[in-house]
Amino acid sequence: MAATQSSDVLAELGAFLAIPSVSVEPVHAPDMRRAAAWVADELAWANGRVVETEGHPLVLAEWLGRPGASTILVYGHYDVQPAGDEREWETPPFEPSVRDGRIYARGATDDKGPVVVAVQTARRLLDATGALPLNVRFLIEGEEEIGSPSLPGFLTANRELFADVSVVVSADGAMWRPDEPSVAVAAKGLVAFDLVVEGAASDLHSGRHGGAVQNPNHALAQLVASLHADDGSVSVAGFYDDVEPLSVADRAALARIPFDDESYRASIGAPELHGEPGWSTLERLWTRPTLEVNELRGGGPFTVIPRVARAHLTSRLVPAQRPAAIVEALVAHVARHAPPGVSVRVETQPGAVPAYAIGADHPAVDAAVRALRHAYPDAEPLLVRIGGTLPAAAMFEELLGLKTLLFSFSTSDEQLHAPNEFFRLSRIDEGIAAWSELWRLLA
Amino acid sequence: MAATQSSDVLAELGAFLAIPSVSVEPVHAPDMRRAAAWVADELAWANGRVVETEGHPLVLAEWLGRPGASTILVYGHYDVQPAGDEREWETPPFEPSVRDGRIYARGATDDKGPVVVAVQTARRLLDATGALPLNVRFLIEGEEEIGSPSLPGFLTANRELFADVSVVVSADGAMWRPDEPSVAVAAKGLVAFDLVVEGAASDLHSGRHGGAVQNPNHALAQLVASLHADDGSVSVAGFYDDVEPLSVADRAALARIPFDDESYRASIGAPELHGEPGWSTLERLWTRPTLEVNELRGGGPFTVIPRVARAHLTSRLVPAQRPAAIVEALVAHVARHAPPGVSVRVETQPGAVPAYAIGADHPAVDAAVRALRHAYPDAEPLLVRIGGTLPAAAMFEELLGLKTLLFSFSTSDEQLHAPNEFFRLSRIDEGIAAWSELWRLLA
Prior knowledge:
2 copies of one chain form a homodimer. By secondary structure, chain A is of the alpha+beta class. Chain A folds into 2 domains: 6-186 and 355-442, Aminopeptidase (3-Layer(aba) Sandwich); 189-243 and 289-348, Alpha-Beta Plaits. In chain A, 33% of the residues lie in helices and 21% in strands. Chain A is built from 13 helices and 18 strands. Chain A has helices at residues 6-17, 29-42, 108-129, 151-157, 206-209, 216-225, 248-256, 261-268, 281-287, 323-337, 363-375, 391-400, 426-442, and strands at residues 49-51, 58-63, 71-77, 97-99, 102-104, 135-141, 165-170, 182-187, 189-198, 204-205, 290-299, 304-305, 308-317, 343-348, 356-357, 382-386, 404-406, 422-424. In chain A, the strands form 5 sheets. In chain A, strands 1-2-6-3-7-17 form a 6-stranded mixed sheet. In chain A, strand 4 and strand 5 form a beta hairpin. The model of chain A has no long low-confidence stretch (mean pLDDT 95). At the A-B interface, strand 9, strand 10, helix 5, helix 6 and helix 9 of A face strand 9, strand 10, helix 5, helix 6 and helix 9 of B.
């Protein structure tokens, strides 16, 4: 069933990627079940099984053949983002295509490739030595791309399943650059809001009523403009209150990370970089909380004063910031700045996630760095932080008291959530080498 | 062919309304031809004929049986707005339904009902007396709802057809209230822009890039917020430069028009009225130029920093304001207020229309007031202004030097451009009485 040669691993990954397991689209519910069954089958040697949750099922498995050795939990997910506009894909998103040392498909790097790496690590070790160096449990969920809504309930109701686990190792996450092996030691939290501005009872003809009423689009723009100062810093009172100061040592460590503003700017094609003064770009990206308006929406391209205008906002949090306090600060800001002539409200979205961090001195981080040195002897691994959010890591910490090591062989340039997502084939053997060494060190 | 009894008029109107002549939707091109042919057939007694243009055809006709008497041009349109969301209609938009003294259908009041009133006026007069009191030409176009793009070219190429015309009488427009007969003596102009703000080369993950770049949604909101002061007045330098002062006599005349702020506010369901201080609500509606953001659009309800954010704006102009000067003022404002980190541009939409006005002392206005007194002996007609735009009136003036009398039996509460559009059946006989008297007076 499971492959141990690289070419076989690729065939396995291809079969996995051909299943359109899009968790957010109800039409794909049968594909979700197929993908879960595929993963369980792949883990049959470890009692792999599909377990129901309130939402999409998850897959559990365990190999506990080393009594007395420590036990880790390997986390990953089998669900993927929607493909988006298929015309933007060079090859169809669910017909995996190998080109130039890469495999292209939706989910290739987020997170099916990295999941296959972890599973195949176990297969190779078992084939070679008949055993793993430590006990391994697997939890591969199907709701990561929709915020893991069923995971907290499942973990709470099944704590005893994880009582023997010492640390979680996540196959989800991403190395920051293809040529610099890295371990992420922090991820930002996330809280999402909608700002809703309502005016008259229905859309109004802008000729017949213009000049007599407040336009919800104008009011929304005023509110949104009030959220940031011209220099890009957040103007919401209290927003930065709980942010811990960056120590001199931390700033020095960040300054040692190779980062060139101009190459970064060119890589994203922005006219110029922009943000809070007093911080380097990397400090802003990794250590400063943000408040971004992801969507503005009101009216249409015709002569109307719309009834309603909306903005969707997300705030990325850093450690010590409490999602509830950020919600409170935003609600108070909006109340204070609400323009006349309209009604304004904040709708907080469920599923707020605090920031996550693991100490640079945590034994698992040390093991990860050594495992990366083993797989990449020519490059010194970097400790990095990511601006993305890992709900599962925050949940494992809050509900099970477990730290999560982010040990993914995805790379952040591999078009995650975008058209033409891919996974570098070289990461398969590198990843298996590193995972094997990691398990040996954690044992 | 043509009806002369009210019940027959209603049947004719029903047949006209059943044709879905939606000019903006290419799928309705055959319906546009059917509607044009229907109108030409209705005007067969006046040599009614379908005439090609660069876009949808228009219908011409003429009865010139009074040599020596003056000649007028009756203007109207056979095209209609799209139905919008059909679920919001109580009866289907193209299945005319008579209820409570009203006929419901898309186009009932804009502009098929008023066109039928004008045409049937001629039929009744011919049936009763064998002649009309003056010479009448008809021009019923099929592109009013899309800004009359082919009309200027047609008028320019066919000036000689209109050499004998002394005044245009438009069946398009609207009385302002059902219980107060009115003649509109001014309509606002219109100029439309898009504001486009571009950031990076593609949408960015808000976690991976938030804090490093300007968000086009934020920049757009800042720009939009800069367009108006908190009190609702337009902050664009030069915007009010060409606005002619409102004379003491004009203000006094406006103050005599019955208008209650609270009833108006309640009628549109706005939380409160809002706009330039120093002017009454009616002065703002009728005599002040406006700048409205009809649409805001950027990103989506997920964790993205969008590549681009856009606003669609329209400005309603008053007499003496030049569309080109308003474009220039807006472009300069945007250049002055462009936030850093993004590129910003103004895209001016084609088809700007200056404001239109006809003197309250114009003989046609005097005739209209007297004709309305004849049809509505219990109410003194009001001279009103409208915030909407009448491109055709501006074109007749600019290209043919002709003034247009707005003499419509539509009423502004009849759901123009909205679901459940209707036309009051009482307007048919009232309208025919008034049109007959108007022609007699203009003869």
